[in-house]
Amino acid sequence: MTTLARATDTLTRDALTVLQPGFAGTTAPDWLLRRLGEGLASVALFGRNVTSPEQVAALTAQLRAEREDVLVAIDEEGGDVTRLEVRTGSSFPGNHALGAVDDVGLTRAVAAELGRRLAAAGVDFNWAPSADVNSNPDNPVIGVRSFGADTDLVARHTAAYVTGMQSAGVATCTKHFPGHGDTGIDSHHAMPRIDVDADVLAGRDLVPFRAAVAAGTRAVMSAHILVPALDPDRPATLSRRILTDLLRGEMGYDGLIVTDGIEMKAIAGTYGIERGTVLAIAAGADAICVGGGLSDEGTVRRLSDALVEAVRAGELPEERLADAAERVRALARWTTANRPGAEAADTADGDVGLRAARRALRVTVAGEPAPLTEPAYVAAFTPVANIAVGDETPWGVAAELGRLLPGTETGSFNGADAGREALAAAGSRRIVAVVRDEHRHPWMAAALDVLLAARPDTIVVEMGVPRAKARGALHLATHGAARVCGRAAAEALAGV
Description:
The protein is an alpha/beta fold. It has helices spanning about 10-15, 30-40, 55-65, 95-100, 105-120, 150-165, 200-205, 205-215, 240-250, 265-270, 275-285, 295-310, 320-335, 350-360, 400-405, 420-425, 440-455, 485-495, and strands at about 20, 40-45, 70-75, 125, 170-175, 220, 255-260, 290, 360-365, 375-380, 410-415, 430-435, 460, 475. The protein has a six-stranded parallel beta sheet, with helices on both faces. Strands 9-14-13-12-10-11 form a six-stranded mixed beta sheet, with helices on one face. The longest helix has 20 residues, at about 320-335.
């Protein structure tokens, strides 16, 4: 294999340019800085790289001291999927809450403020928004990351998000093309398959992406999903029919195409990351996202070597690799030209996230409500988090309710005995039961049955997609589990 550390030829530089790798730690390791000098054009940040906005700003400054036009990418959707506020929870509600409000001006303002904060930290490329139509209510990986199940609603809010964030100089990456909403499998674990005909896809899943293209999204992220109506043989990330013929040809898209994480099992477990990388570039992808799970120099070397060897073996046209690399550089030129100055702070709207979360709150009352007037017991029924959300970020209402009603206590429960365990832990205190996608978790619904049978005055707060019947003395639907959603719910419970 080629030893890339000493190579400086154009082919090698192009191979490095199309990679978007991650790394471990909160400062850039030497190997990453060296690779930037050799042609690497993008760096990906994940939760493990973040302790505070100030630390991220120092990190991005370190990267740009090595390469001024480096693209710094992050997976910052706001809401449940946050990296910039991974330790505290997001100051912004996610897409589902914005869709529940259905005010495109608000969505645009939220995206602009989130973009401003990213830009202030030196991040100029965001793998967001999710433009997936959440047509399968049992979807285990999209859910509240989607604006909703209505195609037109998702389309108009996707366009507003793109416009808002890019007004702050941060390039958006609309995902997960051609639409991950109708899946019952998480592509982090296996290959999802969507078995609907092309007319359904055109009238449902593709519509928000057309809106994003019309709004000028600078990038689109492919999904690791098999869609036989579009390509019976290859998943979207590896499909020329989907990436080149459909997205570029029929839809007229000319920006950057990025893959979802190439180490996700849907690709790594079926093709392997090296072959998957070569096939993705050959199919029309321009950049390979890697680093959520693999974050070492060896991975960069393996993927770079695979691309170089594929060109030399005639498996990947050199012109295709060169075109992909040029599209990466074109995006870097755009972000550099649109990098905001110090005056951007004057446009800050620090309260827009909380205002949006308050507007997204839906309250259902059964009979006469009995508001909280003293410390309660918050029973959080906690499902296993999907990989996109992660388990690092705190969620729920306990912290915010404790701030308003000091002495509030909490516990986390799951499994067959969750309801009985919560009852025992609560004692005589009023119970606030916090759930997340009750409709997808039979054990969670059973736990609520137990609580409500014994304590009809129990308050229920649903922080996922509110598809289960509203029940409890008071039922609050927040449409997401971001910190600001918890604060909005706590304010309503405490009457402030």
